[in-house]
Write a structure and sequence with these properties.
Guanylate Kinase phosphate binding domain, homodimer, 20% strand, 8 helices, Rossmann fold, five-stranded parallel sheet, alpha/beta, 2 domains, four-stranded mixed sheet
């Protein structure tokens, strides 16, 4: 059986990673989602193993010491991490796994698992990004300017990724990502078993 | 403007390269075909610049000396070659170019133009390949056995290619190749201009 792929969907905040992942999962229902481990308390209706794996700080830190995360970060005093063992278990069972993550996290994952497929979601323009963040209405003008400065810097990391996909329309972006997944599965390097099978027959 | 891609469709004889290319061109009518240069005489209805560029032996050899071919070979005393200048002209004008070629030729092209997208077309099995060649009815039993031995050896070159696509059904194969082309155009390395544009805006 062929190994599954780890598909890392990343990019600046506001580029539309979440919407794209949701739509991609509808299109490719066999795909699994990487569920994060966190030390923060469950909120209403959050389910263990669906939204997060909830754990204690001590248990999380022990996992850090055992190198059990593809990446982790501390935000407002809580840990969040991508469990390596869960991802590898799925991949080794031939499942494709999708991981939605910010740029800093994605670059850490790339160090630990360079075989992943790293996709950078681009906003169509900084102007459009500004519009999207403003339309959300959750941030002050200063925050929006800071955010855009940050995005400008983040774009320089795009070349550390394998692919860039512009989120002009969600359907376009999702269809490109599907094509990328098909192409990655067709890579010669991923199909050693197939060739050997034909030669043995 | 982005550069076009050189899509090299290659693989063992009988794998179905020709049928795939024909169907791919119907699906992607903007794609251009690389037309070979030859010293052989035109046959009925063959048109200059459509089927081949016809030339003299002396002119061909001068082009060899000026390194003007991506690859060339001599078959039954006639030269056949892939004109580098023609392919690059199309690519530099943003056109994608498809080149259908045998394995030996493809590996030579890869030396001169490693930026190409090298796709190896696999028969579903050696058994199926035997059936296809037998059904053609143009070759003796000995020839068929020799051909299959040759294919068995040729499969070991598959890993020099970027992608392997099994030609189980032409439609499947063509749809995979279309996905590969979309994915290749999404590669970060091919989209430097796009990022710079967003940052400049």
């Amino acid at each position: 059986m062929d190994q599954g792929l780890l598909i890392v969907i990343s990019g600046p905040s506001g580029a539309g990673k979440g919407t794209i992942c949701k739509s991609l999962l509808e299109k490719l229902p066999d795909m699994k989602v990487s569920v994060s481990v966190t030390t923060r308390k469950p909120r209403n209706q959050e389910l263990e193993g669906i939204n997060y794996f909830f754990t204690t700080k001590a248990a999380f830190e022990e996992k850090i010491n055992h190198d059990e995360f593809l990446e982790y970060a501390q935000v407002y005093g809580n840990y969040y991490g991508t469990p390596k063992w869960k991802v590898l278990e799925l991949i080794n069972n031939g499942k494709d796994v999708i991981l939605e993550i910010d740029i800093q996290g994605a670059l850490k994952v790339k160090e630990k698992y360079p075989e992943g497929v790293f996709i950078f979601i681009l906003p169509p323009s900084l102007e459009e990004l500004k519009k999207r963040i403003t339309d959300r209405g959750t941030e002050s003008k200063e925050d929006i300017i800071r955010r855009l400065d940050c995005t400008y810097e983040e774009l320089s990391f795009a070349f550390k990724y394998d692919y860039l996909v512009m989120n002009d329309y969600v359907e376009n972006a999702v269809s490109k990502i599907s094509a990328i997944i098909t192409a990655e599965k067709s890579k010669a390097i991923r199909q050693i078993a197939l060739i050997n099978k034909i030669r043995e027959d």
